């Protein structure tokens, strides 16, 4: 006798969560409601922008709730009326116990790291920034702390030398989508065990701010290269630079490195008609795709067709 399908409430906001929800629907799971962030004003006109999850959920004619306050009595009443057996959380916000404790089969989260490593808001970024060689995805039951609950399943994946946050995000989204399906099947079977997270000092992955993304050109070449790819395409590594006695801002989307000895000062900008590189203490960072303030993002070869850096140009930090 086949088991009755679980009624599932899904909670998430960004594109990463859309990939997971899409796969749940493709596998014919019963999604009875979607919870996502409220619409937010964006752009110069402050037009309301809906979350990626809301846009997709509406295209699938799924009920959508957008609470500002997760403890609001009206929201809790609506949530309870969905009669969910299970809740799935992907890239959402911290839930109060009254929410995560509501369904009889619990609430599990998909996190884009191998917990307890990289607990926090930006696990994909920090794994690359810190030069990790592998990462993965974890499903775990939510408890009253952040990313500390008992683990259901995990899957590993290699971080390639040329991976950026963009490419690794997509790989982990695909891997996570399959892991969530396996996790729901496991919970439906009622034949599973969980394991406590190891009692080790966790690596944290805090939220990224503008100051976090500024490059320190006194760091070594590999660390700078990892930071650039660990912040690309969002929120993007950046630096000030001085050329022709004026200070400008540059965002760096792609780069590559050359490890070599040299006598140049850290931060010195060296350009010719085809390349732009920055001297660091054990080599050079070649800038491949950049954006100057007020300009569009472009390949460095295109930039150098119309912009000339002075002979004494340098990065400032």
| Content of β-strand | 25-35%
Q: What separation lies between the terminal Cα atoms?
A: 66 Å
Q: Structurally, how many domains make up the residues?
A: 2
Roughly what percent helix? 25-40%
Please tell me how large the radius of gyration is.
Answer: 23 Å
What structural class do helix, strand and pairing data support? Answer: alpha+beta
Mean pLDDT: 96
Secondary-structure map with pairings?
Layout: E1 7-12, H1 15-26, E2 30-35, E3 40-42, E4 47-49, H2 52-59, E5 64-65, H3 73-81, E6 86-90, H4 97-100, E7 107-111, H5 123-129, E8 134-141, E9 151-158, H6 165-189, H7 221-229, E10 237-243, E11 246-259, E12 269-271, E13 276-280, E14 283-292, E15 298-299, H8 300-306, E16 314-316
Parallel strand pairs: 1-2, 1-6, 2-5, 6-7
Antiparallel strand pairs: 3-4, 7-8, 8-9, 10-11, 10-16, 11-14, 12-13, 13-14, 14-15
Helix pairs in contact: 1-2, 1-6
How would you characterize this protein structure?
This protein is α+β, with helices and mostly antiparallel strands. The protein has two domains: 7-189, Rossmann fold (3-Layer(aba) Sandwich), CATH 3.40.50; 211-316, Methionyl-tRNA Fmet Formyltransferase, Chain A, domain 2. Helix content is 26%, strand content 28%. It has helices spanning 15-26, 52-59, 73-81, 97-100, 123-129, 165-189, 221-229, 300-306; strands spanning 7-12, 30-35, 40-42, 47-49, 64-65, 86-90, 107-111, 134-141, 151-158, 237-243, 246-259, 269-271, 276-280, 283-292, 298-299, 314-316. The strands form three sheets. The protein has a seven-stranded mixed beta sheet. Strands 10, 11, 12, 13, 14, 15 and 16 form a seven-stranded antiparallel beta sheet that branches. It has a two-stranded antiparallel sheet with strand order 3-4. Helix 4 links the parallel strand 6 and strand 7. Helix 1 packs parallel to helix 6 (165-189). It is elongated and about 70 Å long. The model has no long low-confidence stretch (mean pLDDT 96).
